[in-house]
């Protein structure tokens, strides 16, 4: 995950008037609308309006991500395909590709993984945090050849559905740490941590910096995990209850899946 500033106002919803204004500005500015100064000015104006009374302040990153998402939608050249979507992965680097884009060969001798038995999580562009995926609704291929899927997050309604880049924003779900498995966590591991701040409570990526090991039984862990969050480079000491481990094959490389139809995952 890139070191992006986490969007503090995770629950912000653009009003109809704000969305109309954003649409107008995008039509006028095009790619120039992604400029940080331009986005900061919009965020400042929206946050100071009467409609924003009682809401958390809007960040310029939220505005920029709205424009980025709009740009991606306009660049999409395929929204539906008559062919079943195949996920093709090169086990050497975890690349996920749609059938037809055969830049990498499918590994031979690899058993097929039943995707129905796998759980996934996706990173929302609204808050840059990871959320469990309830279902995949559709897919599209961008003009760049990149694959995007429309996801519905567990516990959220259709209003929160998003298009997510498969390569950067979809992965096998993290696994909550059990006290008896704390010995499996090592310094440098990528973990998913529950972060509670004044303005948000989200699951964010972090690297383990140090582990203070303590003797304990199988039902409770007394170890202290010092982690560095990727979104703001801050450090914190947390307990096992706030740690989720990445699948073991991802500790050294990205998610890798063999060729398999993802059509059966549609909600």
UniProtKB/TrEMBL annotation:
Keywords: DNA-binding, Homeobox, Nucleus. Residues 16-78 bind DNA. GO terms for cellular component: nucleus. Residues 14-77 form the Homeobox domain. The keyword Membrane does not apply. It is found in: Nucleus. Its main location: nucleus. The keyword DNA-binding applies. One of its GO terms (molecular function) is DNA binding. It comes from the Eukaryota. This is Homeobox domain-containing protein. It comes from Crotalaria pallida.
């Amino acid at each position: 995950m890139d070191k992006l500033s986490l969007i503090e106002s995770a629950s912000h919803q653009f009003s109809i008037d704000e969305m109309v204004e954003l649409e107008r500005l995008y039509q006028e500015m095009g790619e120039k609308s992604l400029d940080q100064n331009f986005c900061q000015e919009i965020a400042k104006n929206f946050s100071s309006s009467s409609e924003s009374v009682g809401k958390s302040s809007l960040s310029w990153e939220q505005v920029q991500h709205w424009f980025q998402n709009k740009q991606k939608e306009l660049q999409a050249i395929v929204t539906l395909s008559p062919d079943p979507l195949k996920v093709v992965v090169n086990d050497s680097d975890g690349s996920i590709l749609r059938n037809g884009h055969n830049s990498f060969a499918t590994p031979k001798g690899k058993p097929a993984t039943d995707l129905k038995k796998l759980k996934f999580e996706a990173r929302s562009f609204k808050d840059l945090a990871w959320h469990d995926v309830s279902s995949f609704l559709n897919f599209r291929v961008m003009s760049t050849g990149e694959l995007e899927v429309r996801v519905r997050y567990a516990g959220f309604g259709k209003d929160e559905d998003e298009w997510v880049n498969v390569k950067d924003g979809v992965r096998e779900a993290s696994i909550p740490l059990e006290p008896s498995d704390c010995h499996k966590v090592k310094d440098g591991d990528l973990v998913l941590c529950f972060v509670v701040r004044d303005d948000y409570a989200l699951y964010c990526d972090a690297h383990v910096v140090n582990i203070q090991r303590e003797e304990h039984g199988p039902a409770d862990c007394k170890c202290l995990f010092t982690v560095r969050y990727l979104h703001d480079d801050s450090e914190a000491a947390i307990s096992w209850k706030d740690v989720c481990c990445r699948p073991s094959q991802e500790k050294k490389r990205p998610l890798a899946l063999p060729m398999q139809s993802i059509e059966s995952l549609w909600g």
